[in-house]
Amino acid sequence: MHQAAAELEDLWDRPSPFAVPITVGVEHIDELGHTNNVCYLQWLQECAWQHSTAVGFSEKQMAASGYGMAVRETRMFYLAATYPGDSLWVGDWLIKNDGRLRATRAFQILRVADGVCVMRAEVDYICIALDSGKPHRMPKEFVSAFSVLPST
Asked: What is the C-alpha separation between 76 and 23, in angstroms, rounded?
């Protein structure tokens, strides 16, 4: 975990998240004056891809394997608004992997200035064959790379 994210350790829902920093920009703000909900989904995706890359499967590497983890369902819980200049940490954890078809990531977004949790989310993925888009048993490399770490 990045040193600055570690400073928020007591605020994370689970230990040792994979975390990426985000700064809310004016381009993220909607007509209501706060961050547009679509931006949060983009940040979750960015975090998931960076985590996937860190365990050996960038988008390019996943495409080359012929298999991918496609989003099946997303559950997002907005808890507080964010505004331009807010520094955030987006953290994720692999919380489920059946070793066959399905895996789940949990996400949490923390605001650095006050430690407020602004969002929690879970995303369910299913392994697919990229040539057909149909569900396919996870390659053993996926099972290993996307393994669930025990809670400490």
From this structure: 20
Q: Distance of alpha carbon 48 from its chain centroid, rounded? A: 4
Paired residues of 120 in beta bridges: 77, 108
In DSSP terms, 152 is beta-bridged to none
Sheet containing 102-111: give its strands across. 18-23, 87-97, 102-111, 117-129, 67-78
For 122-149, the pLDDT digits (tens) are 999 999 999 999 999 999 988 888 888 6
Interval 50-91: pLDDT, tens? 999 998 888 899 999 999 999 999 999 999 999 999 999 999
The full set of domains in the chain, from first to last, is 3-145 (3.10.129.10)
Beta strands in the chain (DSSP E): 18-23, 67-78, 87-97, 102-111, 117-129
Give the torsion sign (CA, 117, 112, 115, 147).
Answer: positive
